[in-house]
Amino acid sequence: MADLPEPSEEAREASAALAALIADEIKTHGWISFARYMELALYTPGLGYYAGGAHKFGDHASGGDFLTAPELTPLFGQALARQVAQVLAASQPCMIEAGAGSGRLAADLLLALDALGCAPQRYAILELSGELRARQAAIIAQHAPQFLDRVQWLDALPEKFSGCLIGNEVLDAMPTHAVRWDENGLIECGVRCGEEQEGHPLHFAERPASQALIDAAEILPAAAPYRGEISLAVRAWVAELAGRIECGAMILLDYGLPRRELYHPQRDGGTVRCHYRHRVHDDPFWYPGLSDITSHVDFTAVAEAGFDAGLSVLGYTNQAQFLINCGIGELLQEKLGADKAPALQGGRAKNALLAVADGDTVTEANLRAGLRTNGAVSVLLSPNEMGELFKVIALGRGMPQPLLGFTRGDRVHAL
C-alpha cells in the first residue's frame, strides 16, 4: 500500500513463508474462515505477528507498530494496581495476566502492589509466544527483578483459580468471523486464493454462514444489508475462564462497544483494522504476519458469557472514568510534586507546568519529564484518545461491590 513504509527484505521473506503456509491450507480445504486466517496471521509459530521476532510494542522511533497504555506511563499500572489490590484482598494473593505484551504492565503492577503492601505471591502470565515470553522476562528482570521468582508462564489456563486476572488489549486480537447480512440470511466472508487483487493472491470469498454463527447472530441488532464481525472466540474464552474462577475477578480493558452501538447502521462495514508502524490500514492481506489485526469487542457478549457461566457483572465503564476512580489524578500529582502539579485541564496543563518553572524549583529535565507524564495521562483520559474508545469490564465471584474502579460512572445498564 502506497502510504505504508516498505518492509525490509527479511520481513518480506517471513511474510512470504507465512502466506505460502496459509495458501496451502486454503488449497487443502478450498476456503478458510476469516477467523482462521486471523489466527494463522497472528499466531503461527515463528511466523505469525505475535509469534515471530518482529518488534511490536513501542513508539515509532523504536520500530514498534503501536503503543499500549503501559508503554505510555507507569501511572496506568499504578492506578490499575489499586483495583487489583481490592480484588486480591477479597480472594487470594495470586494474579494471572493474559497476553502480557511487552511485560511492562506486569513490572508496573508488581512494583505498585508491593508499594501498597499486597504484592502477589504468584504472578502467572498466559502467553503462547516464546519470543514474547523472553521479552517479558527481560523487562521484568530490568524493572522489577526482586519479583522475577514469583513470575511463571502458563501454556493454558489453570483448572481452578482464585485471585485477579488482568487482560489489557487481549480480546481485540482474538480471531473473529467476518459476516454479511442480506435478504437471504447470514453470509460468512472467508478467504480464498486466486488471481492477485491489491497486489496479493488472498481475497475474500463468501459462503452461507455456519449454524453457530447464525445462532450467535439471532440476538444481534444488525439489519440487512450490513457487514460486520462476530467473535465466537471471545465468547468462548470468557466462558471458559469464568468457569474456572472460584473466587476473584477478571478485569478486561479493550476497545469496543455495547452491542447496540457496535452493530449500529453507521458501523456498516465492520471494525477490522490493521496496525503497522503506527499507521492504521484496512487490508488484512497486506504482507500477512507483519501487521496486527484487530476488531472491536462486543462488551455485551463478554458480559453475557461471564454471567451465563455464573459470574456477576461487577462493573463496566470507559477507561477514563475507571482510571479516575482508581486515583490516577492523585498519582499524577504525587509524580509531579503535590505543591506544583497542575490540575488535569486538557490544553492548560502545559501552561500550568510552565508557570511553575521558575528555574530554582523545577529543572528543565524535570519539566520535560513532567510534560511527558502529563501528556501520557491526557492520552489515557481524553475522550478523543483512549479515554472513551477503551472500556473496562469486571466479572467475578465473591467480590465486594462496588469495586473501586466503578464507584462512579458505572455503565452496566448500557450493556
Alpha-beta classification = alpha/beta
* Order of SSEs: HHHHEHEHEEEEEHEHEHEEEEHEHHHHHE
Helical coverage, percent range: 25-40%
Main beta sheet strand tally, sense and closure: 8 strands, mixed
CA(first)-CA(last) distance: 38 Å
Low-confidence region ranges: 341-361
The quaternary structure here is single chain
Shape: globular
Tally the helices.
15
Mean pLDDT: 90
Rg from Cα: 22 Å
Using DSSP, what is the number of strands?
15
Strand content: 15-25%
Task: Describe this protein with a few key phrases.
15 helices, 37% helix, eight-stranded mixed β-sheet, alpha/beta, 415 residues
Task: Outline the secondary-structure elements.
Blueprint: H1 9-29, H2 34-43, H3 69-72, H4 75-90, E1 94-98, H5 104-115, E2 122-126, H6 130-143, E3 151-154, E4 161-168, E5 177-182, E6 185-197, E7 200-208, H7 211-217, E8 226-230, H8 232-242, E9 245-257, H9 259-262, E10 273-276, E11 279-281, E12 292-294, E13 297-298, H10 299-308, E14 312-318, H11 319-325, H12 328-336, H13 348-355, H14 364-381, H15 386-389, E15 390-397
Parallel strand pairs: 1-2, 1-4, 2-3, 4-9, 9-13
Antiparallel strand pairs: 5-6, 5-8, 6-7, 9-15, 10-11, 10-12, 14-15
